[in-house]
Amino acid sequence: MKLSELTLPKNRWKLWGTLASLSAFPAMATDLYLPGFPAVAHQFSVSTYEVQLTLSSFFYGMAAGQLLWGATSDRLGRKLPTILGISLFIIGSIACAFAPNLWFLIIARFIQALGGAAAMTIVRAIVRDLYSGEEMARTMSAVMSIFMAAPILAPSLGALILQYGQWNWIFIVLAIFGVLAILNFAQMPETLPREQRQRNGVGDVIRVYGSILRTSEFNFAVLQASAASLMLFSYVSLIPSVLMVEFGATPAQFGIFFGVNALSLVAGAQINRRILKRLKVHEALRNFVIFQAIMAVVLFTLAHTFPVIWVILPMLMLTIGANTSIGGNSATMAMAPFKSSAAQASALVGVIQGLSGASIAAIAAVLPGQPLEKMTTMMLVIAAVANTVLFIRERKLKLQA
Q1: Cα separation of 98 and 302, whole Å?
Q2: Which residues form the domain of 141?
Q3: Residue 282 covered by a domain
Q4: Cα separation of 28 and 21, whole Å?
Q5: What does the pLDDT read at residue 191?
Q6: CA 129, 131, 137: angle at the middle one, nearest 5?
Q7: In this structure, is residue 124 part of a structural domain?
Q8: Which residues, at least 6 apart from 315, have a Cβ–Cβ distance to it below 8 Å?
Q9: pLDDT digits (tens, 9 = 90+) for 215-273
Q10: Would you place residue 127 in the very low, low, confident or very high pLDDT band (cuts 50, 70, 90)?
Q11: Measured CA angle at 90 (ends 87, 96), to 5 deg
């Protein structure tokens, strides 16, 4: 397939599917593994809260990896760094499968994430290579809606693996997923021509990162993206304890509940695609941020007054459902000004999101209180921060007008 053919209607679904499979690395590596928390805790004689440290190490690995692969991709193109990164992900997954203790698993998860970061970072850069403006945002939403099959199916698949095997098998499946992703991506053409690649040294790369960070529109957008990441990972890090410990769900039931909740992320992405046909990216972003805050208030109130699973789950769906739209629109706004350094801009978005996710997972592990109360309180605070950022940005724009 030629590069010019990628954006043709007949090839768009193939392109979206390929990009979605790359975007799915973080979701697959976290969500497939979530039902195994109790089994890991039992084997290593630790608590499920201590097992959450494997999530934190994964998020830190994703953050570090994105800085590495972002600069590498703008210099060497999209294909080679992606294949190298996925190969490292495969090695890390195999190391996880044979971990003799929790600390080895924590380190192996970091290595796994360091490699997997290449796929997530370079996907956004490829979209930036091919599109701009609202078309870029719609493509982001399309990719997000397809890739959300991962968090829908992964927990159920993880629970199925646990039903017939040990938690270690989950990481063997992830290694196989990595191999299949490489075989699929190898058929895709390079999207960054040689004449558009960076030829800077290490010092110049650092200066490019600094220049991106000094762009006010980037800073606003990345703060919104980080708030979405905080919201999602406060949910992901605590939902195993909420459902399997507090509400007593089995691993199989957890997979079903988690998958149903993930459907809201697909719905949110599809709604966003339609909205972007009528509204500009920043207008759609504002609507979703406000909606999520309202839902977070209702969820917090119900969790502290009427904590019944059949009441809590629908509100979680509505609150979390806005995340793909907030994240996709924020990433679009953050990367829009940087055509020649798209992967580095993408990397910074991912790094800040990853550090946010790692921090919130670590905080969730040590905060006192019941899992449901902790999760909904954290989500309410994050929603308040997101709306504060939105208010400051819009006030600044009015003063400049």
Answers
A1: 42
A2: 8-187+199-400
A3: yes
A4: 10
A5: 81
A6: 120
A7: yes
A8: 295, 298, 299, 302
A9: 888 888 888 888 888 888 788 778 888 888 888 888 778 778 877 777 787 788 788 88
A10: confident
A11: 145
Q: What is the CATH number of the domain that holds 364?
A: 1.20.1250.20
Inter-residue contact 152 to 27 (CB < 8 Å):
no
Domains held by the chain: number: 1
| CA dihedral sign, ordered 140, 146, 147, 149 | positive
Q: Does residue 307 fall inside a structural domain?
A: yes
SS3 sequence of the chain: CCHHHCCCHHHHHHHHHHHHHHHHHHHHHHHCCHHHHHHHHHHHCCCHHHHCHHHHHHHHHHHHHHHHHHHHHHHHCCHHHHHHHHHHHHHHHHHHHCCCCHHHHHHHHHHHHHHHHHHHHHHHHHHHHHCCHHHHHHHHHHHHHHHCHHHHHHHHHHHHHHHHCCCHHHHHHHHHHHHHHHHHHCCCCCCCCHHHCCCCCHHHHHHHHHHHHCCHHHHHHHHHHHHHHHHHHHHHHHHHHHHHHHCCCCHHHHHHHHHHHHHHHHHHHHHHHHHCCCCCHHHHHHHHHHHHHHHHHHHHHHHHHCCCHHHHHHHHHHHHHCHHHHHHHHHHHHHCCCCCCHHHHHHHHHHHHHHHHHHHHHHHHHCCCCHHHHHHHHHHHHHHHHHHHHHHHHHHHHHHC
Report the pLDDT value the prediction gives residue 5, as an integer from 0 to 100. 55
Separation CA 282–CA 276 (nearest Å): 10
Read off the tokens for 291: 């909606």
- Condensed to tens digits (0 to 9), the pLDDT of residues 128-150 reads 778 776 777 777 776 766 555 66
Angle between helices 79-97 and 9-31 (to 10 degrees): 30
What's this model's pTM, rounded to 2 decimal places?
A: 0.69
pLDDT tens track for 32-71? 887 888 889 889 988 877 887 888 788 888 878 888 887 7
Among 198, 177, 225, residue whose Cα is nearest residue 328: 225
Place of tokens 């044979």: 98
The 3-class secondary structure across 82-130, one letter per residue, is: HHHHHHHHHHHHHHHHCCCCHHHHHHHHHHHHHHHHHHHHHHHHHHHHH
Residue 3 lies in a domain: no
Q: In angstroms, how far apart are the furthest CA atoms of the chain?
A: 62
CB count in 10 Å sphere of residue 333: 23
